[in-house]
Amino acid sequence: MRYSKLLAACTVVAALSLVIFTAACHKNRTIAEDTGYAADQALSEQTFNDVQAISDQASGTTGNMSYRTTATTSGPCARVTHLGDSIIIDFGPSNCMCRDGRNRRGQIIVTYTGGGYANAGSVHTITFNNFYQNDNKITGFKRVTNMGNNSFGQPYFNIHIEGSVTHDGGGTVSTVWDRVRTQTEGAATTDISDDVYHITGSGTLTRANGTLVNINIATPLVVAESCRWIEAGTVTFSIGNKTRSLNYGDTPVCDDNAVLTIANGNTRNVVLP
After folding, report:
1. Phi then psi for 14, rounded to 5 degrees?
2. The whole model's pTM is what?
3. Torsion, Cα of 13, 19, 24, 27 (10° steps)
4. What is the pLDDT of residue 70?
5. pLDDT given for residue 115 in this prediction
6. Which of 54, 196, 221, 266 could form a disulfide with 185 if both were Cys (CB 3.0 to 4.6 A apart)?
7. What residue ranges do the domains of the chain occupy?
8. Cβ(98)–Cβ(72) under 8 Å?
9. Within the chain, where are the H helices?
10. Distance (Å, rounded) from C-alpha 259 to C-alpha 235?
11. Measured between alpha carbons, how far is 223 from 158 in angstroms, rounded to an integer?
C-alpha cells in the first residue's frame, strides 16, 4: 500500500511537471513573435520611395542617368526616353549596380496627364515592366497627384499605391497605401540632392503568409534624396487587437538603423534594406 501511494504521488508530480513544462514552452512561443511585418513594411516603403525618386530625376533627363547622389559606383545605369507624355526608364535586362548601392534591371514606365510632369494638377502613374530591385520583382502601380503648394508654400502630392514586392527567394508582399508627400526642403533649386520630403498616410500590407497588417504613419517619415534610407519617423502596425511600432529615428540621421517595439513592449533593432 505504501508503495502504491508513493507511485501515485510520483505520477502526479511527473504529470504536473509536464504541464508546467508545456506551459513554459507555450509562453516562450508567445514571446518569440514573428516580426517579419517590420521588414516587409520597410522594404516596401523604401522600394516605392526609390521608384518615385528615380521617376522624378528622369523627368528632367534624357539619355543616360546615374541614379542618386550617394555614389558607391560610377557610370550610368539607366537609359531615359521621353515619348510624348510617357517616360521610359530602362535599366536593361541584367542587373546594374546604381549609385545608391542597389542593383536594378528592367523598366520603370511613367505616364502623366494634366500638362508638364511637375505642374500643379498633373497626375503621373508609375508602372513596371519586368522591373527588379536587388532581385526582388516590383509590380503594380503608384499614382501621384500634384496638389500644388500647401498653406506653408510647400509642394505636396497625394499618392495612391497598389503594389507588390516578390522576394527573390519566393513570397509576395502586397500593399494598398495612401500617402501625402510634402517637399520640405529643396523646392527652390533644380538640384535634387537637396530635396527632402515628409511622408504621411496609412494603408494595409498583406504578408506572404496571408496575414493582413494595418499600417499608419504616426510621425512623418523623413526621406532625403541624399540618403538611401528613411531618416526618421514612426510607423505603427495593427495585427488583430495589438499594436507594434517601428521607429526610424526621432531626428533625421542617414543610417540603416530602426527600432521595433513589439506587442509586449520589448524592443529589437532592425537593419533597414
Report:
1. -65, -45
2. 0.84
3. -160
4. 40
5. 77
6. 196
7. 35-271
8. no
9. 2-31, 36-59
10. 11
11. 16
Distance of alpha carbon 145 from alpha carbon 155, whole angstroms: 11
Instruction: Tell me what pLDDT residue 98 has.
Output: 87
Phi, psi of 166 (to 5 degrees): -100, 115
Query: Residue ranges of the chain with pLDDT lower than 50?
Result: 2-3, 5-31, 69-74
Cell numbers standing for residue 182: 510634402
| The pLDDT value given to residue 78 | 86
* pLDDT for res 65: 62
Closest CA to 223 of 269, 167, 162, 179: 179
User: Residue 225: what are its φ and ψ, rounded to 5°?
Assistant: -65, -15
pLDDT at position 134 is 96
How many C-beta neighbours within 10 Å does residue 209 have? 8
Among candidate residues 155, 228, 232, 149, the one with its CA nearest the CA of residue 186: 155
All cell numbers assigned to 238 = 495593427
Radius of gyration over every alpha carbon of the chain, rounded to an integer in angstroms: 24
Distance of CA 172 to the CA centre of its chain: 14
Distance, in Å, from the CA atom of 209 to the CA atom of 176, rounded to the nearest integer, reads 17
Q: How many CA atoms lie within 13 A of 106 on its CB side?
A: 18
For residue 135, what pLDDT is reported?
A: 97
Give residue for cell 520583382. Answer: 137
Q: Taking the mean position of all CA atoms in its chain, how far away is CA 145? A: 20
CA angle 107–112–116, rounded 5-degree value: 120
Question: Which candidate, 53, 34, 56, 33, places its Cα nearest to that of 45?
Answer: 53
Q: Note the pLDDT of residue 261.
A: 96
pLDDT tens digits for range 201-238: 999 999 999 999 999 999 999 999 889 899 999 999 99
Query: For strand 242-249 and strand 257-261, is the pairing parallel, antiparallel, or unpaired?
Result: antiparallel
